[in-house]
């Protein structure tokens, strides 16, 4: 009888205090972890700026190459290899194993 009187408040305390506290604790942890910090924001801004600079450089290089040789894109493309299909799979496999 005495044990039942002790177990009831423990169970009630766990259900009405412990469980909500545990849920709210992890909800606040998830909310704070999902936000971006100032350091992360600065890093993203720096990476975006660097990507824009690299894009500008690539455009400049492409303009220079186009002015020097208008057909540079065609010469930069690899040889036109047929896409593997069931019909030419054996032939392509032989070429890979024994290049001539």
Would you mind describing this structure in some detail?
It is elongated, with a radius of gyration of 33 Å. The protein is an all-alpha fold and 100 residues long. It has helices at residues 2-34, 38-68, 72-76, 89-97.
Kindly summarize this structure in a few lines.
With 100 residues, the protein is mainly α. The chain contains four helices and no strands.
Keywords:
100 residues; mainly alpha; 78% helix; elongated
Helix and strand topology:
Elements: H1 2-34, H2 38-68, H3 72-76, H4 89-97
Q: What class would the helix/strand composition place it in?
A: mainly alpha
**Total of DSSP H or I helical runs spanning 4+ residues:** 4
- Main sheet record: none
Strand content: under 5%
User: Could you tell me how far the N terminus lies from the C terminus, measured between alpha carbons in angstroms?
Assistant: 92 Å
Mean pLDDT: 84
């Amino acid at each position: 009888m005495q044990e039942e009187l002790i177990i009831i408040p423990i169970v009630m305390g766990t259900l009405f205090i412990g469980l909500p506290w545990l849920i709210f604790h992890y909800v606040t942890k998830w909310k704070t972890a999902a936000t971006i910090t100032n350091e992360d924001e600065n890093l993203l801004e720096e990476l975006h700026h660097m990507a824009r600079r690299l894009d500008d450089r690539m455009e400049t290089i492409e303009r220079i190459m186009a002015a020097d040789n208008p057909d540079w894109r065609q010469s930069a493309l690899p040889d036109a290899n047929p896409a593997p299909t069931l019909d030419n799979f054996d032939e392509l496999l032989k070429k890979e194993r024994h290049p001539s």
